[in-house]
Structures are given as C-alpha cells and as structure tokens.
Amino acid sequence: MDKADELVARGANRHRAGRMAEAESHYRRALRLEPNHPDALNLLAVALRARGALTDALQLSARAVAMAPEQPLMLANHGAALAEAGRLDEAVAAMRAALARAPADAVTWRNLGQALAAGGDAAAALEPLLTAAKLMPEDPDAWLALAQAHAQAGDPVGARGAARAALASAGRHRAAAEQAQFMLAALGEGEAPPRAPASYVRHLFDQFAPRFDAELEGRLDYRTPALLADALGAILPPQGVLSVLDLGCGTGLSGVALAPFARRLEGVDLSPRMLDVARARGIYAALHQADLLHFLPTRRANFDIIAAADVLNYLGDLAPALAAMRGALRPRGLVAFSLEAGEVAPYELAAGMRYRHETGHVRALADAAGFTVLAEPRVVLRQEHGAPVEGVLMVLRPTGG
Questions:
Q1: Is 196 within the bounds of a domain?
Q2: Among residues 73, 271, 319, 381, which one has the fewest Cβ atoms lying within 10 Å of its Cβ?
Q3: What is the CATH number of the domain that holds 82?
Q4: Is residue 208's pLDDT more than 80?
Q5: Domain termination site, one of 191, 226, 243
Q6: Number of domains in the chain
Q7: Is residue 197 part of a domain?
C-alpha cells in the first residue's frame, strides 16, 4: 500500500467513526500526494456533501467518475450529489449507470426513486423504491420514500401500506416512527398530531432547497411572499426603518418581498440547506437555524414585523405560535402570515401533509393571544396538481397597540 492509499484508508476509518474533520484532512493529504486518486476524490466528496458543501462535492465526485468511470460507487455518489443539487435528469442517468453495474445497491435504488419523484414522475419512482424496500426491508427511510411516492401518484392505499411498513421497521428510530405516524394521519389513519415532526420538515426542505425557487416561482406560480408584503404595505407603507423577522425564511424568497420594510432583516428556518441559499442573497443581517417555537421566546419585544409565508401550514395547533409571536413583537408591531384555508375546525391534516385551518377558530386564538385582526383577505397561494390552493392572509396587531 502506497502512502496515498494509506491516508485514504485512515480517513475512511475516521469517516466511519464520525470524525469527519480528521477524515477530510486525511483525504486532502492523499490528494496532495496523488491529485487524481479516485477513492480520495470520492470519499472527500461524500464528506463535503454531508456538511452541505455541495458545489465542491459535485466537482470532486465528477473528477472521481472521470478517473474511474466504470466504478458503480463513484457513479452512485455523483448521482446523489447531482440530485441534491437539483440536477435531476443528470442524477437519474448517473444512478441508472451505477445500478447497471451494481444492481444490489439498495441505497441507490432509493435515491433513484426519490429523484424521479422529485422530478414529478411519482409513478416511475414506485418500482425503484419498491426494489430498495425489498433489498433493505429493515430500513424505514426506504418505506417512507415509497409511501410518499404512492401518495404523490394518487394511490392512498399503497401509501398507507408502505407507511405501515415504515412504522413497523422504525424500531428505535424515533424520527422515522414520527414521520410514519404523521403520514398515516395525513392519509386518514390515526389522529393528527398538533404539528408536523421537525425532522420531517427539516428533511423535506433540505432536499428541496436547490430547486425550491425555480419550482415554486415556475411550475407552482408561488405568490405568497408578494401577497403578504402587499397586505402589510396597505397598513404600514414600507420605509426601510423597521426590525423585521422572516419566520421560516427558506431560501429568502419571502425576505426579498419583506426587505423594503426593513432596517434590519433577520430570518429563521429549520433547514440548514435552505439557509445556505438565503445567505447567498446577502439581504439578511442574521440567519438562525432553529424551531420557531424555540427561537421566538429568546427575542422578547424585539421585532416590529414578524412575517410567516407558508410556514404555519406545518403546525396544527396555532396557539403556541401566536403566543410566541406576541411575546417577540413590539407594542405597535404587526404579525402577518398565510394559512391554507379549511372548513374543519380547528384544523385538518390534508393528504399533502400540510394543515388547513378554519379561519374563525384562528381569529379566536388570535384574540386569546392578545391580537386584533386588521386584515383577512382570501387569496390563491399557489397551484398544486393543476389546481389553485385557496388560502387566507392574516395581519394582526397587539390589542390596544
């Protein structure tokens, strides 16, 4: 074994032990000795992708494939990186090439199915995801991905069956169990919890981050941030002098709409990869990775405006969120948020795994939290499966403020 191989082996040992900084150091030392070492390129790409350095990971995984084009592991890892970057057609091609050489690779079958589903072809995703689940029946993530694809393909029976299998295989994997139970509740089996599991929301938007803006503004005709800014502007014209919190800021699309109001704009979101995209916009004074119910109590009377575009859809019981927003707001501040409109009080969990709220109940919660409703326009938030998603915007001010 030469020195570069030895360094790669040491790095791989540390990688398996979770000592990622040491692993990266060993891979980089190997590449200084042998710049085109395919294993060092591939493993460093995997390590970088795990910590969100996706651009560098893509470059390195492409070099690894160039050095070893017949190695299925190189093709599979490059395909996974392409999928995370939102380059779905290229990802599918790379993963199919990997599977032609290594057809027992369950993880790549799962990744292929998820890439196909993300590209809008849920029906085509079913076969690779079922293959993955059969190859690793003890892995709840494979069953969850299959359940989601069945749901997207309009097959609730198949979705329930796969979600049950995910729950049965979850064992001590608490996050997987919570996600399976949440999905079953959305499919009408079991009581809806008061909120979506944080692990589900974080994973969903981490995976969605690279293609979020293009998909929402293109295919889904996403309008919520602009509509919220218009509703706020009708009450308080934007003058760039306020402290503004973008709650659930995502990639910063909502921040762009809110920026004209702000002297200081902050954002908070569960997804680190969404925050990476938001950070690149250069419009936020600060960005925080946190659950909103944990973050807001740390900022007592700190903001003039708190806005939440398509965020409260992932909460059923809105009472804790409204109380937390009231505490973080200054006396004459404004809260503005969107909701998907529902007819069932207090809320219902829809098959799309988002909550719909009955507005009369939300008005009562707002009053109990110390708010007065200033505006409540009905709007179309976006398109979904070719149909409009009906919603309501609510603008609130502290009572007596």
A1: no
A2: 319
A3: 1.25.40.10
A4: no
A5: 191
A6: 2
A7: no
State whether 88 and 226 are in the same domain: no
pLDDT tens readout for residues 29-57: 999 999 999 999 999 999 999 888 889 99
Q: What is the CATH number of the domain that holds 374?
A: 3.40.50.150
> Does some domain include residue 200?
no
Which of residues 167, 191, 215 is at a domain's end?
A: 191
> Which structural domain, as residue segments, surrounds residue 239?
206-398
Residue burial 242-263, b: 16+ Cβ < 10 Å; e: rest: bbbbbbbbbbbbbbbbbbbbbe
157-206, pLDDT tens digit by residue?
Answer: 999 999 999 999 998 899 999 999 999 999 999 889 999 999 899 888 88
Q: The pTM is what?
A: 0.86
